[in-house]
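Help! Submission page says 'invalid entity' but I think these are all valid:
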Amino acid sequence: MSTKKRILSAALQLFNTSNTQAATTNHIAAALGISPGNLHYHFKNREAIVLALYEQMQAKSVLSVANLPASIGAVHEHQRHLVKVYYEYRFFHRELLFLLSRDEALKTRYIADNIAHRKRIRIVMQRLVENGYLAVPVDNVLEHLSDTVLMNAQFWQSYLETLGLPVDEAHIEAGFVHIEAAMRPYLTSKARVELAQIGA
Amino acid sequence: MSTKKRILSAALQLFNTSNTQAATTNHIAAALGISPGNLHYHFKNREAIVLALYEQMQAKSVLSVANLPASIGAVHEHQRHLVKVYYEYRFFHRELLFLLSRDEALKTRYIADNIAHRKRIRIVMQRLVENGYLAVPVDNVLEHLSDTVLMNAQFWQSYLETLGLPVDEAHIEAGFVHIEAAMRPYLTSKARVELAQIGA
C-alpha cells in the first residue's frame, strides 16, 4: 500500500474510533510510525485528509444515472451495500454538520453533491413507478419519499446517537429498513413478490 | 426582565445568528453592557447557558402524558406550535450532536429526555389508532411512524442545511408537512375530514 493510502487508512481508523478533532495529523503520523513531515508531504492538513476520505466514500457509494437501480430488488441490494460503506466511514455522518461548519470548501462541495444525490434518488423513484414497483396516488409522494431516503441516509446514525443506541452495522441497517417501511404503502404486488423472492 | 433572563435572551440571539463556539460569555456580556463577572455570577460557563436555554425550549415544547394530543387535529396544532419553538431555539438542533459531544452531562440528560420523548410519541400514535384516526395493517407501523416523527423533529433543520436551504419558519414547517405525508397512507376518513376542517 502506498504511504498516501496508509495515511488515509490510519486516519479513518482514528476518526471512527475517536473523532476528527482529537485525532490530529501528529496522532495519525505516530500511529503509522512516520514523521509529521512525511504526512504533510502527502496531505497539507487534516481538512485534506477528511476530503480525501469523503471522496473515497463517494466513489464507493455514488452510482451514475445510467447505473441507478431500476427494480425494487436492485434498490434493496444497493441499500445493503450502503450499510457497509456508511459503517466503514461512520465518522463522516457522525460529524457531518460539524465538518461542514469548519470547512467552507467542503460545505460547498457537499451541498452540491447532495443536491445531485437527491436528483438521482428522485429519478430512481420515477423509474420504480414506470417499471410497476410503486403506485403513487399523488405526485408529491415521490418528493416525500426522496426526502425520506436522503434524510435517513444522512442522519439515521445521528438519530441512533440521540437515543443512546450503538452505531454498528445492524443499527445502520435499521435506517434502511426504516426507508423501506416508508415505501411499503406504495409497493405494488409485483414489488412485494420481488422483495419476497430475495428474502427482503 | 431579570439579569438572568436578559443573559439568556442575549445568548439565544447570538447563538442563533452566530454559533455557540463563536459567541463566548465575554461576547454575551458585551452585548448586554454588563461585566463578565456579573454574567459569571449568574452562569458558571457557556455550558450552563446552553443547558438553561435547552430547559426553556423543553418547557415550551414538552407535553405531559395527560396532555398529549388525542386527535389528528390536535397533533397538527401541536406541530405548528413546535415550528415556532424550534425556530426560536434553532441553534440547538443545528448544533445538536456537537453540543452533546462537548458536554457529557448534557448528553446524558438529552438522551434520557429523548427516549422519554419517543415513548410519548408512541403513546400519541396508539391513541390516534384507538380514537379512529389511524388504521395500521401491522403493528410496527406505529414504531416506524414514531421514528419518523422524532427523526424529523430533531434533524429536519440539519437536512435543510445539507441542501443549502434556509432555516426559516416556512422551511422548518416543511419538516412537519413531511411527517404528515408519512402518516397519510394510514389516515382514516375521519382523520381526513378533521384535517380538512382545520384547513390542514
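Support: the input was valid. A stray whitespace character was the problem, and the output above is from the cleaned input. The mean pLDDT of chain A is 95.
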